[in-house]
Prior knowledge:
By secondary structure, this protein is of the alpha/beta class.
Amino acid sequence: xxxxLISWFTRFSxxxxxxxxxxHESLIEFEDHFNEPNLKQGLNHHxxxxxxxxxVIPNGFDNYIYKKNSSEKIKNSYITAAIGLDNNTNIKxxxxxxxxxxxxxxxxxxxxxxxxxxxxxxxxxxxxxxLLPPLNQIDLIEHLSRSEFxxxxxxxxxxxxxxxxxxxxxxxxxxxSVNSIPEIIGENGExxxxxxxxxxxxxxxxxxxxxxxxxxxxxxxRIIDFYSLENRASKLLDAVDSLIxxx
Length: 247
């Protein structure tokens, strides 16, 4: 009953608001081929005949705060960050199980999971996987600055902040082919097209010993060029102005 009521109010709100401001086009309509079975997602799928206009406004990031510090990158280091890893559902949703399952195939690489300290069952964690608690901003930037690659293997993710913050710290991204992740990465990293261990191993083999400062700097530039705070602020103001003018 509770979920049905929330669902009704959600549909009512989207149908009767003046403008929807999704962070990515895929939140309106998206066909998921990463997970099995393939699924259609987005507002147009869940709310039939939705006619409310929308304008995509991506997240924005402060490149003055998120930037690589003077730390040296650790060779073949992979990092990710997630919350809620004290239950198996979130571990799977964030792709943490994939990381743990393949780590033993890469004994010369290190895998850091920020938030991983909350994982309850630690008996099968490989020795090259470091589980850390959730970190404050300063410590997060330190770990991102020392890592070569950032892993965003989520099963669903509208517009993830973590991958963008990591790219600003010159991490090369490796992400799942869901929602905004391929667009954020562009030509600057690797895309995992299926939630499949063998494909993930192949992706990691392509990245081993392949980090370069030039690639890291290109990742940073992409976020500054496409997802700046100024860009988000400008689009939000334009959206508000358009609503005011309509009245």
